[in-house]
From TrEMBL:
Pfam families: ADH_N (PF08240), ADH_zinc_N_2 (PF13602). InterPro entries: ADH-like_N, ER, GroES-like_sf, NAD(P)-bd_dom_sf, Quin_OxRdtase/zeta-crystal_CS, YIM1/Zinc_Alcohol_DH_Fams. Residues 15-330 form the Enoyl reductase (ER) domain. It comes from the Bacteria. SMART domains: PKS_ER. This is NADPH:quinone reductase-like Zn-dependent oxidoreductase. It comes from Pseudorhodoferax soli. SUPFAM superfamilies: GroES-like, NAD(P)-binding Rossmann-fold domains. GO terms for molecular function: oxidoreductase activity; zinc ion binding. The keyword Ribonucleoprotein does not apply. Keywords: Oxidoreductase.
Length: 334
């Protein structure tokens, strides 16, 4: 099958289109003909080698952390899917490979595609929607009437997180550039901070939750926005000892992560707040919840551009540029 492959790690590795063997089908797997695959910043980070210690992939590697497509075959123990089903998923992080004609996905990580959207839109959702769900619903336990700040509201995670937070009944503030202010308001944001004109930490106060997807400076400023007892959730790090334990990482690596997150955990504690790092995981049950929200109109996919499989390297470069509004998708079946 054709796939987009990296042969070695490094930011200057462009990747290539080549032939790879069809993935083996385990008893609890579903073999999917990929119609489209979402492109995420995570793909570039994996290519650059940033996750080598946590996710030791074997090279050559097919990237791609979001897929939508049609079921071809199912494993011997699979009862919930059958050939012909239209499905979507965030594959488990040790079995990625969406930038290819076919992929084997664990059945527990898969869900039926929302009926009211196409394959390209469906492929844009799993990773960012699950990230938003696990950050706001699972980690922060965001409640109706609470105030949440979602940084980078025009990005892939931010654009879905705004919609999810509004569905939960929260008051939503977000940050974006001048060009996207009206656009994120249309997604549901109640307050929009143009980061080119204002510093969010000097404007906002007494928020219950902050969802951070940016760097260290924004992470530290986020604490100033929280009320005592508030919750800072970050999807861009630094990872915590709790994350290391959940991943079953080796003791030396656990100590490294403990040191990396010590500063922000201490600052949060001093302010009477809490800090959680979220590294999203595949979850078919949560994805079914998201399907219901999409079909009800509570969440709509936001797709900036679609590239053909042959232009996957260009799609990755476009995501890396930071210019995308919403998600970028690789279209495998045109």
């Amino acid at each position: 099958m054709q796939a987009f492959i990296i042969d070695r790690y490094g930011p200057k590795q462009p990747g290539r289109i080549g032939e790879m063997p069809e993935p083996a089908l385990r008893d609890d797997d579903v073999l999917v003909q990929v119609h489209a695959a979402g492109v995420n910043a995570l793909d570039s980070k994996i290519r650059n080698g940033e996750f080598k210690l946590i996710l030791p992939y074997r090279l050559p590697l097919v990237l791609g952390n979001d897929v939508a497509g049609t079921v071809i075959r199912v494993g011997a123990r699979v009862r919930s899917f059958q050939p012909g089903d239209e499905v979507y998923a965030r594959p488990d992080d040790d079995r990625i490979g969406g930038f290819a004609e076919r992929i084997a996905v664990k059945s527990s990580s898969l869900a039926l595609k929302p009926r009211n959207i196409g394959m390209v839109e469906a492929a844009s959702l799993p990773l960012v929607a699950l990230t938003a769900w696990q950050a706001l619903v699972e980690a922060a336990r965001l409640q109706k009437g609470q105030k949440v700040l979602i940084l980078a509201g025009s990005g892939g995670v931010g654009s879905v997180a705004i919609q999810l937070a509004k569905h939960l009944g929260a008051f939503v503030a977000t940050t974006t550039s001048t060009a996207n202010v009206e656009w994120v308001k249309a997604l549901g944001a109640d307050v929009v901070i143009d980061y080119k004109q204002q510093d969010f930490s000097s404007v906002l106060r007494d928020y219950d939750v902050v969802l951070n997807s940016l760097g260290t400076a924004e992470l530290n400023k986020s604490l100033q926005v929280l009320r005592p007892g508030g919750h800072l959730v970050s999807i861009s790090g630094p990872p915590t000892p709790a994350f290391a334990a959940a991943r079953g990482l080796a003791w030396p690596l656990r100590q490294v992560l403990r040191l990396l997150s010590f500063g922000i955990r201490r600052k949060a504690k001093q302010r009477g707040s809490s800090y959680t790092f979220v590294f999203m995981r595949a979850d078919g049950a949560q994805l079914r919840e998201i399907t219901s929200l999409v079909e009800s109109g509570a969440i709509r996919p936001v797709v900036d551009r679609a590239f053909p499989l042959q232009d996957t390297s260009k799609a990755l470069a476009y995501v890396d540029s930071g210019r995308a509004k919403g998600k970028v998708v690789v279209q495998v079946v045109m």
